[in-house]
Amino acid sequence: MTRHVDPFIGTEATALPPQQGLAATWWWPKPQVGNTHPGATYPLGMVSACAYSGAYPTGYGRYGLSTEGLPEEIHERTVASGFTHFQQSGTGAIRKYYNYFRVTPMLQPLDDLGELWDVVDEQAEPGYYAATLENGIRAEITVGPKSAVHRYTFPSHRDARLVIDFSLGGLAIPYGRTVPLRAHLQSIGPGQAQGEIVVEGAPLAVHVECSDTRWRQLLWYDRRLMPGGTRLDFDRIRPTTLRPFGLMWAGPTEPGQVVELRFGFSLRGPDQAKENLERECGPGPTSFERRRAETATVWGRHVGAIQVDTPDEDRRTVFATALYHSLIKPCLAPDESPFWPTDGPFAYDIATMWDIYRTQLPLLTALVPDKAVELANAILHIGEEEGNLPIGYRMARGADRFSRQGSALAHTFFADLCRLDLEGIDWDWALVHLHNDLRRTYGEDFLLRGRAHPISHTLDLAFGYWCTSVVAARVGDKALVDQFGPLAARWVNAYSARTGLLRDSEFYEGGRWNYSFRLQHDMAGRIALAGGDEAFVGMLDRFFGFGAPPVTQPGVAPTPEEMAVGYALDRFEGLNNEPDMEAPWAYMYAGRPDRTAQVVHDIVQQQFGTGRGGLPGNDDSGGLSSWFVWASLGLFPVAGQNVFLLNAPAWRESVTRLGNGRSLTIETAGFVEPEPGGPAQFVQAVYRDGVPLERPWLTGNEVHEGGRLLVELGPEPGTWGTTHRPPSAAAPAVEVRR
What we know:
Helix content: 25-40%
Domain Glycosyl hydrolase family 92 N-terminal: 4-167
Strand content: 15-25%
Protein name: Alpha-1,2-mannosidase
Structural class: alpha+beta
Largest sheet: 10 strands, antiparallel
CATH superfamily of the largest domain: GH92 mannosidase domain
Strand order of the largest sheet: 3-6-7-8-9-18-13-12-11-16
Region (Disordered): 717-738
Number of helices: 18
Pfam family, one: Glyco_hydro_92N
Distance between the termini: 47 Å
Number of strands: 29
InterPro entries: 6-hairpin_glycosidase_sf, GH-type_carb-bd, GH92_N, Glyco_hydro_92, PNGase
């Protein structure tokens, strides 16, 4: 499947065909751009590398700061001043994006460093990125988990050079630069150098080697060479005192001469960076082909874990790329914590739980459960050392600035892992931190007043108590199970009995309608509060725009008034944003799987496409892409509840190779290849390993057991799924272990 991956999908402004039918009524408040980059990556690895233009938000591309509507261009075409390391994937307004250790291959004087050159002949595949600069130098980059290898092919020149800027970081937009607080670098031998920069409180070390030891090796400061210099040290750097500095190799080249740069990175000093390089790339002096092949093999296993049957190559590309984007982040960096001395799991670029907890984390758990456990332990270590379980966590020191997005979101991840009984987690230790985290920030108001504002945090916290009681039951703490039950039932305090919707409050990137249809643990109670099945379905129909006219999407630089009109629609955000991405499945709890089928069909077939504009919004670390993977398979994980809802697949057949060695095959009967704007298909019956399955859901354990599902489809809604409702419980239905 890797040959079908197109890393360029999502790198430019959304350019999907005009939305049709129901999809034309949905309103997109977030930037209409995927914010992905095509650089070389490793599955869940530390390092990425890509061409650098300084554009928002990943450092790659053509756009300026954009938080809503179509992005404004700051470059007319693809340009780059070099190639940087460490990029986010698909995220939005985090602002400080890494892009450290820029490498610029030059034929010009050092004074020209920072000039933007046209980029042509770009190529990208999982683990590999290549481009030719306007100066005629061909660049190729591959990466390992903690390393990168660059290969440059030069034209003939009397004094070619490879310049590494240790001072660069962040973005070339107003207030987007990252200034190192401290730095040092030194030459340690022919063709070898090392250094460390402290950025946003994190010490990032590098060991770098040049394959041609005959080239001159020089340090430079403020674009001036330092002949004979072997070390540079900087302390207490301020934005006003920063001058660029770095390292350079230079020498004459023949036509087609190739030079490699090998980088090892670490958050624990240059010596460990060197160890990482040698472990992943060997002793050198060259290792590009070896590293590229090994990374391609790993990506092949990951992206090849799910096979879909379709005659449409474009649709296969969309799926393979979605799966690829789902497996880039978070960054797992074992034994690399810079903030506490012990070895063990460490992770960053959890950006953010609000984006990934519903879809991407369940996908990791299914495909690479060992990595899910590693991430869970890393989160617990963060809680142990920093006092809270993160909503967002970057390669930076500082308080969790993303807590306003949500509360207690990691709890859903741990509840699912606990129900699956995956090995490698100390559940007593986990319970301590899960419980403690529920009482921080908005948790105090929740305990004292029965609700917290923003009101969506009341839902988060009530569900967090429900999820944590699953862990408490596992370890046999009946007192906590009894205590958490009434607290979990406080979800009802978030709603108005008069409207059946959430109470008036502030909402993050949406309104009360967008947050009112999340899949809670007590959906039966939620539907009753709305006035019963018919009333609840009526509210959903209004929310999803049944019978409504098409909307006008925000354009470039929309005005506050334009955005206010859009928000006043109280309409589904499509897959442009995350708050209501699970809402299409709320119909199933009211006995209307046909409505779920119709809404999901329109999203899957219309809001993901090929080309650089093929995503409807920020991919957000694979949050949107993993939604597409699940939805197109005909499954949807109800995060934290160990439940997968069933729906019409978008593929004639799919085979998912689970991380535990089993496989889940989903076959269909009566399948018709779907078309954008065409009719949906509806489930008529489901058979699990040949036995009729009347209920429209599987437990997480059943999904992870694998087996074979046969889904019979038809052009009209049937009776399947209308009687048996997905699980709903006021308190967790688990047995307390004594």
